[in-house]
Design brief:
The complex is a heterodimer of chains A (495) and B (503). Chain A is α/β, with parallel strands linked by helices. Chain A contains eleven helices and 24 strands. In chain A, a hairpin with a 2-residue loop joins β23 and β24. Chain B is 46% helix and 7% strand. In chain B, the strands form four sheets. Chain B has a four-stranded antiparallel sheet, with no helix packed on it. In chain B, a hairpin with a 2-residue loop joins β5 and β6. The chains are: A alpha/beta (495), B alpha+beta (503). Chains A and B meet through β18 of A and α9 of B.
């Protein structure tokens, strides 16, 4: 069932096995998996079925740091399906090295490994409608050409809206903004929900899963903690911290001979990435170097090619007109930034229309964020030169001669961390099962649990983690014995 | 003889005229592009009639068990007279004589006010006389500083300092203004009316918000915000931003009390910049990070005190005209842990440093000179202007502040390490080894990272620099980074510029 607000459900039907908060890729996946498995689920979506200006305004917040990211009310969507309403569909699973520490002093290790997520990869690919990933192809000893796959992209609101409407196991309530939790006996017993009319209601469930997004998960828990005197997240040392993006920048230009060995994929892109061993040896984090053909008209292309005869001089001329010089192919990249406790979500002074503090996002690139792309691009340049198939020209900011450019993408709108996974509650908010440390029945889904970010776009990993969490919850609920709505006792079903 | 055709001569003349015109136009364009605001305008240096430098030098030259307070009060009065002598039409600006910085004449003038303010505030707090005699008559220091604060933060006033932008030098100056305000919170703050206070706090808030360079700059917004908070004007959001900024900053800590100051690494900014700012943050807000700030300061000072002696300091690094500030962390540490840094030794470090450099031209004409001893453009960075060197007063800001808590100036002096015996000490984090010889009083600093380097020569400011400055209308001083950072050893026996005794 899908209703416009929680008030449309009678109070009896506000008690479920699982309450999922947020209907983006993580929340929708968990709700569907558990609903299909026979559990009663209530899925609370703070926004409406389609984009709504007033609702979206709740996402306004302040950014503090440099270079600037997209405004917080633009980079995410508060509506059914969440961020899947505007994602690009680029997918790739994390590499084995992404789950490990690669550099001393930079904590990128996950408490789980790539093998712990692999069982859910086929189903996640099925949900996202991805074709098979081919193998990585070595490009020299230190680099490899890595495949991406592209979701149509799947919009979870469109794709599963009808199933939500028809389901008798899943209740979807729109306009249901979770503003806190009731705690009793060391576990969550109710989610407090407010609708746009200001009506407050409570939802009871046996498990609660917060999937509100890579910023909202932190914000809601920080607020819930502030309201409850720290009872919701009793061990909050890492709450809001280790927030991450994938820096996205143009690194330079490439001139390639015609006999280059790469295969451009359906998006016209070649992805090159260092091997795990090369990352460790070079002291860098993971990075996806992207070779794109420059998209230009004939006249522009001619001008550019002529300008590339003397690239340094031409670059200066282009910059005077606010243009970026692209010679032949452009080399772009997105990469892994070190997880830092001081990149964090905090509650701001301003409040939203519901009286809840807005987000103040403290995030800044640092000198290390030049190191990974500079060294990786250098490795690519050396390999191209060694094979005699091309040459590379890098942007000045990579050497620290200029600030990070402010006219580039900066980030991929990949909001990660804030409630990271760790066995140590001083370094993370959730345990390897995504359960909040020190709190019963409260779980977190989505990229906010990533302890580190790799370079791959996060949605595929989000869905893998969501499926894994759904299975964990199913097992946990079965262990409890009783289910709401349908009562299941030791395998017997009584309705 | 072959006659050249007339048309060829005409073309030749036209070509020459054109080339000259292009050269002139190009030169003018380049000059306009590089010119620093007010570069050609220089203030004439004056002698301080009411508080002559001779009396200051004489007082510092006195020998005995302790200098006491008198020489410091004399130098304070000399420098305060200087400030009022060079003060402009607006009470928020002062135009000192000397070489301008690349920030322009107006920012240099803001520096003058900003850098004198904490010194004057600490001096007043320690019982300094409010009325100061100048050639133009007696001036009330507190009233003048109040007027400067009010004017500098009033957008309608011609002396308005303007809103600091990203990476703006005025952020640095705002930190000193904030500190001065905090030190004068009982003296000058109550003299401002409510509207003036609001404007002062607004201006400080605007200076705490923009982005700063990594390194010691990261502490300026934090110090400013802590003062705003102490005066009741901060917010939760601003506090959280300070906290984030501080957490980022402390990642630069490398052990042994040393921070890596981006981009130069280890130099005397740890003393007069980083530990100085951290000491004040701790004083303004003792709950900020007492477990980090205090032990690191003391650990730093326990090593650093070996660099201070009666024959000066081994000169290295940048911003060298701040040389008189070098005892600041040692005096500060003696307040934090007197059982580990004796106040008597800290004050002896102050006496030794000030006596040595004052006798050699560090103070004259009502200003701190732009060099290590006297003025020396070879040692002056492009960012340093006529009043920049007032950062030298930082050791006295700490000393006068300490005097408000306990008698410091009359504390019996205890000898410095180099006065007690020969020593070799080492700090692993920066890779610095310091050796002292009691017999000759000289101190040598060896830097691991520079071992094996050929000692780079120090380039003097020459005619070439002078021509470049005239053409560019901007500072074009010698680049001496290799000599001041790269040498394997720095010694008091080989000061980088002439350090002759002044009469």
């Amino acid at each position: 069932m899908l209703v416009e607000s929680l008030g449309a459900l009678d109070s009896r039907s506000r008690r479920h096995d699982v309450c999922v908060i947020g209907s983006g890729p993580a929340g929708a996946t968990i709700a569907l998996a558990l609903g299909r498995a026979g559990f009663s689920v209530i899925l609370l979506e703070a926004g409406r079925e389609s984009w709504d200006e007033k609702s979206q305004a709740v996402y306004e917040g302040d950014l503090y740091g440099a270079p600037p990211l997209l405004p917080l009310s633009v980079s995410r969507l508060r509506q059914l399906g969440g961020a899947s309403n505007h994602w690009g569909g680029w997918c790739r699973p994390l590499d084995a090295a992404d789950f490990e520490n690669k550099i001393d002093g930079i904590d990128t290790a996950w408490p789980i490994g790539v093998a712990d997520l692999e069982p859910w990869l086929p189903e996640a690919m099925n949900i996202l409608e991805l074709s098979e990933f081919g193998p990585d192809v070595a490009f020299g000893e230190a680099l490899r050409e890595v495949p991406f796959r592209y979701s149509p992209p799947v919009n979870f609101g469109y794709k599963y809206g009808e199933e939500f409407r028809r389901s008798d196991r899943i209740d979807v309530a729109l306009d249901s903004y979770v503003t806190g939790f009731d705690v009793d006996g060391g576990r969550i017993v109710h989610a407090k929900v407010r609708d746009s009319g200001g009506a407050d209601r409570r939802v009871a469930a046996r498990r609660f899963v917060l999937c509100a997004g890579g910023i909202e998960n932190s914000r809601l828990l920080l607020w819930a903690n502030a309201q409850s005197g720290g009872r919701v997240v009793p061990e909050p040392a890492a709450l809001g911290r280790y927030w991450m993006e994938h820096p996205h920048f143009t690194l330079g230009q490439i001139l390639l001979e015609d006999d280059f060995p790469f295969e451009f994929d359906q998006q016209g892109t070649v992805f090159i990435s260092p091997t795990g061993a090369a990352m460790r040896e070079q002291g860098i984090l993971d990075i996806g170097l992207r070779i794109h053909p420059a998209k230009e008209g004939v006249a522009r292309k001619l001008i550019t090619e002529l300008a590339c005869v003397a690239p340094d001089l031409s670059d200066k001329v282009f910059r005077r007109f606010g243009k970026r010089l692209l010679c032949g192919l452009s080399l772009r990249a997105s990469w892994e930034q070190p997880p830092r406790p001081y990149n964090r979500v905090v509650l701001g002074d301003r409040v939203d229309a519901f009286g809840i503090p807005r987000t103040d996002l403290h995030w800044q690139l640092e000198d290390f964020d030049r190191r990974t792309p500079r060294i990786a691009a250098g490795m690519l340049g050396a390999e191209l030169a060694a094979r005699g198939i091309g040459r590379l020209r890098l942007e000045r900011w990579l050497d620290g001669l200029e600030d990070f450019p402010e006219d580039d993408e900066t980030g991929g709108n990949h909001h990660m961390g804030g409630t990271r996974m760790s066995r140590d509650s001083r370094l993370g908010v959730v345990d390897p099962d995504c359960r909040v440390h020190g709190m019963g029945h409260l779980y977190i889904g989505g990229s906010s649990v990533f302890p580190s970010a790799g370079f791959a776009n996060p949605t595929l990993t989000i869905v893998q983690l969501a499926l894994r969490l759904a299975d964990h919850l199913a097992g946990s609920l079965a262990h409890d014995g009783e289910q709401h709505g349908t009562v299941r006792v030791r395998g017997e079903v009584r309705t | 003889m072959m006659r050249l055709p007339r048309w060829f001569l005409v073309l030749l003349v036209l070509g020459l005229v054109g080339a000259i015109a292009v050269a002139i136009a190009g030169g003018a364009w380049l000059r306009k592009k590089s010119a620093v605001e007010g570069f050609g305008e220089r203030t004439v240096a004056r002698q301080m009639d009411a508080h002559p430098i001779a009396a200051v030098r004489q007082a510092f030259a006195a020998t005995g068990p302790s200098l006491g307070r008198e020489p410091y009060d004399l130098v304070a009065e000399h420098l305060l007279e200087g400030f009022f002598t060079y003060r402009g039409d607006s009470p928020s600006l002062a135009f000192y004589p000397g070489e301008p910085s690349w920030h322009g004449r107006r920012v240099d003038a803001i520096e003058a006010f900003a850098r004198i303010l904490p010194f004057a505030a600490a001096w007043l707090a320690a019982g300094g006389e409010d009325d100061i005699a100048t050639a133009g008559g007696t001036v009330s220091i507190s009233a003048a500083l109040r007027d400067g604060l009010a004017a500098g933060t009033d957008p309608q006033h011609p002396g308005y300092w303007g809103e600091p932008g990203r990476f703006d030098q005025r952020i640095v100056e705002a930190a000193d203004i904030a500190l001065g305000l905090w030190l004068a919170r009982e003296r000058i703050w109550p003299m401002l009316d409510e509207a003036q206070r609001d404007r002062v706090l607004d201006w400080l808030r605007s200076a705490a918000a923009p982005h700063v360079f990594q390194g010691n700059w990261q502490l300026f917004p934090i110090l400013i915000e802590r003062v705003v908070d102490a005066l009741g004007g901060s917010s939760k959001q601003a506090r959280e931003r300070s906290r984030t900024g501080y957490e980022r900053f402390v990642t630069l800590y490398r052990g042994d009390g040393w921070y890596y100051d981006v981009p130069k690494g280890f130099d005397y900014y740890n003393a007069w910049g980083i530990h100085y700012a951290l000491f004040w943050i701790d004083r303004i807000d003792p709950a900020w990070d007492p477990g980090g700030i205090r032990p690191r300061l003391v650990e730093f000072a326990e090593f650093f005190r070996h660099l201070l002696g009666p024959r000066g300091v081994p000169i290295m690094g940048r911003s060298l005209c701040y040389r008189l500030a070098l005892p600041a962390p040692v005096v500060a540490a003696s307040l934090v842990a007197p059982e580990r840094i004796a106040p008597g030794e800290a004050m002896r470090a102050l006496d030794a440093t000030w006596s040595y450099y004052v006798a050699r031209g560090a103070v004259e004409q009502g200003r701190i000179t732009q060099g290590v001893c006297a003025d020396d453009k070879a040692l002056l960075d492009g960012y340093s202007g006529p009043a920049s060197c007032l950062w030298s007063l930082r050791s006295l800001v700490v000393a006068y502040y300490a005097e408000t808590l306990q008698p410091m100036f009359e504390t019996p002096r205890e000898p410095l390490p180099v006065e007690r015996g020969d020593f070799t000490v080492r700090a692993d984090a920066p890779g610095w080894t310091v050796e002292g010889k009691r017999a000759d009083g000289h101190i040598r600093l060896r830097i691991d990272a520079n071992a094996g380097n050929e000692p780079a020569p120090l380039h003097a400011y020459g005619r070439g620099n002078s021509i470049k400055e005239w053409l560019a209308q901007a500072p074009r001083r010698p680049e001496n980074g290799a000599a001041l950072y790269g040498r394997p050893e720095f010694s008091t026996a080989q000061p980088p510029s002439a350090c002759e005794l002044r009469r």
